Description:
Elements: H1 2-18, H2 21-41, H3 53-72, H4 77-88
Helix pairs in contact: 1-3, 2-4, 3-4
Amino acid sequence: MAIPTTIGGVFGTWFLLHASVTIIKYFMVAAVVFILGYAYFSKDKPKSKSISKFNYVVIVLFLLLMGVYTNFIGLGQGTFGRIAVMSILGMSYIETK
């Protein structure tokens, strides 16, 4: 899980240095809305023992975005990560520690 986060972090640093403030603001709002929307509206939460390949692809993409987000602000990164793991991979709060 460290590889997609690191790649996202490198891209995030490059994007932060070259993007305008307006684009960064829209990106941040879209990322937070996506994470919270997915966690709230996801009705078919997978069981942690039977995780599909699709869920692994989703979590890798999420980790790329989290790497970008962490290099922007990093505020709440652990909370967003835990929400994503709980909703995408179907783990409980205790299993995500």
